[in-house]
Design a protein that fits this description.
Blueprint (H helix, E strand, L loop, with lengths): L1 H7 L7 H13 L1
Length: 29
């Protein structure tokens, strides 16, 4: 998980669920 955080950026630091919700929300919008 730490590696993914560094790869994608600090955005992964929050929570996988929160990030997924944000991505789905932006995609829907």
């Amino acid at each position: 998980m730490r590696d993914s955080k560094v790869t994608d950026g600090p955005v992964l630091t929050v929570e996988p669920a929160a990030w997924s919700a944000f991505v789905h929300g932006s995609a829907a919008a």
